[in-house]
Amino acid sequence: MNSGQDYTAATLSQDALQDLQQFEGKLRTETNKEVIVIAYEKEKKQ
């Protein structure tokens, strides 16, 4: 996944985290597979 870019785990609000977890659940149901969604954010260059 790394194409010369640096990424770190995204800091999410409680609401955003709940939305992400609901999305994971929907994907699991629709695909019948164990799905984990990971939120990353691009690190800002200083």
Task: Give the SSE map.
Blueprint: E1 7-9, H1 14-31, E2 40-42
Antiparallel strand pairs: 1-2
Overall average pLDDT = 88
Secondary structure: number of strands? 2
The helix-and-strand class reads alpha+beta
Largest sheet: 2 strands, antiparallel
Number of helices: 1
Give me the side-by-side strand order of the main sheet.
Answer: 1-2
What count of domains describes the coordinates?
1
Uncertain regions: pLDDT < 50 for 5+ in a row? none
Rg, nearest Å: 13 Å
Helix content: 25-40%
Termini separation: 22 Å
List descriptors.
single chain; alpha+beta; 2 strands; 39% helix
Précis, in short:
By secondary structure, this protein is α+β, with helices and mostly antiparallel strands. It has one helix at residues 14-31; strands at 7-9, 40-42. The protein has one domain (7-42).
Describe the model:
The protein has 46 residues and is α+β, with helices and mostly antiparallel strands. The chain has one domain. The chain is built from one helix and two strands, in the order βαβ. Strands 1-2 form a two-stranded antiparallel ribbon. The longest helix has 18 residues, at 14-31. The radius of gyration is 13 Å and the shape is elongated. The protein starts with 6 loop residues before the first strand and ends with a strand. The model has no long low-confidence stretch (mean pLDDT 88).
